[in-house]
UniProtKB/TrEMBL annotation:
This is Methylamine utilization protein. It comes from Litoribrevibacter albus. It comes from the Bacteria.
């Protein structure tokens, strides 16, 4: 059975989704749905790569062999930032837009739980470690996140100056 690659699209000068969760050794395609060209890259340790200036769809998907957090950028549009969380296990969950995760049953051998968010106050490359006993529907976990600073792009400066 052929496994379909995950998709990290580019729409309206943004990565969509802004966070993509995949398993180790997964393939990811980077279609460009904008009517302009993008230059996607990452310098992140788990997967440094570069897709030079292109439109449409690159020839082949990229394989993410190593677990970790891959921060994406566009060399043309500084405001474009996206994240690929490459999980090294099959018990990784992504929250909904309200920050909630519904887990029916935790694995019996679970010793630690790790939580990650791109805007954690500790930094984008950090995770919070919890004991499974700290998880309960009655006591939601509150993350200490910070609002990311505005990205200075030519377009943002231009609009502020002349509007």
């Amino acid at each position: 059975m052929k496994v379909m690659p995950s998709i990290m699209d580019q729409i309206n000068k943004a990565f969509v989704p802004d966070v993509l969760v995949i398993s180790k050794d997964s393939l990811v395609e980077f279609p460009n749905s904008d009517n302009i060209r993008h230059h996607v890259y990452s310098f992140s340790k788990p997967k440094p790569f570069e897709l030079r200036l292109y439109s449409g769809k690159p020839e082949a998907p990229i394989r993410f062999e190593n677990p970790g957090i891959v921060v994406l950028g566009c060399n043309i549009h500084d405001s474009m930032v996206g994240y690929i969380y490459v999980a090294d296990n099959n018990t990784t969950y992504q929250s909904n837009h309200r920050g909630r995760v519904q887990i029916e049953a935790l694995p019996d051998a679970l010793e630690r739980v790790y939580i990650w968010h791109p805007n954690l106050s500790q930094g984008v490359d950090q995770r919070i470690e919890l004991n499974p006993e700290q998880l309960s529907p009655e006591h939601p976990i509150q993350l200490d996140i910070i609002k990311p600073p505005p990205r200075n792009t030519f377009e943002a400066r231009f609009k502020r100056k002349f509007n």
